[in-house]
């Protein structure tokens, strides 16, 4: 029961979140309530519903991530910056650690409402992504789009950065009908847990233009984990350096895949839009 409970509205580059703090007063969330809250016709509206919790089996604070369709998932890069910022406002420090289903995260304050998050190590093994069948070189996986003898897109890179992603490298990201093929690839049988789908246009060794169809949410203005997935995949194909600016519809993220410890560092802004309370319908 969420009626009367306070929430925050935040966004990371226009990727919209409802943030619910469950630490003092836990509540049971069901898919229907999340779908209702995420739909702007019936609730405050968001791309992801985020919880801050003391969850059993996890040390320290836990960030829960639920897509607009109600599914709980392992990671959300943009929300990690927002939650990191909130926790640092609380502890008065310039860094904070918290847990997610995907990986433990470490956030650092870089400037005013500018946060860097250590997103951990990418995983490339076919079982780790996961893929439904063995593929040894996940820089190119067996997915084709369009007529069988004349596919329009094929061979995306696949990677898990706390959640599964597939990235098509294209000449012109704006020209791709992502709204049409995004849902088809999200549900492609190669991805047993579904997948986040991106089109990436490499602009230079240090710049990528990225558009994203998010699993469980559709097209969003930005996706932090997709930006990480794109940079890592581009570097694995020798298309970029280990560090690049990734430009999403909502703005830029700085992504670095460190050589020394294999971790991905994502840096970008957070926006606090305001607060509200769930109505009696919840
Ligand atoms: N918006 C997020 C990713 C949210 C989860 C994703 N849709 C999934 O299902 O894995 C981000 O900023 O990373």
UniProtKB/TrEMBL annotation:
Active site feature: 76 (proton donor), 76, 223 (proton acceptor)
Location (main, coarse): cytoplasm
Localization per Swiss-Prot or TrEMBL: Cytoplasm
Domain of life of the organism encoding this protein: Bacteria
EC identifiers of the protein: 5.1.1.7
Site (Could be important to modulate the pK values of the two catalytic cysteine residues) residue list: 165, 214
A matching Pfam family: DAP_epimerase
One record GO biological process: lysine biosynthetic process via diaminopimelate
Catalytic activity as recorded in UniProt: (2S,6S)-2,6-diaminopimelate = meso-2,6-diaminopimelate
Residues the entry annotates as binding substrate: 15, 48, 67, 77-78, 163, 196, 214-215, 224-225
Similarity remark: Belongs to the diaminopimelate epimerase family.
Role summary: Catalyzes the stereoinversion of LL-2,6-diaminopimelate (L,L-DAP) to meso-diaminopimelate (meso-DAP), a precursor of L-lysine and an essential component of the bacterial peptidoglycan.
Protein name as catalogued: Diaminopimelate epimerase
Natural source organism: Hyphococcus luteus
Lineage, uppermost ranks: Bacteria, Pseudomonadati, Pseudomonadota, Alphaproteobacteria, Parvularculales
Gene for this chain: dapF
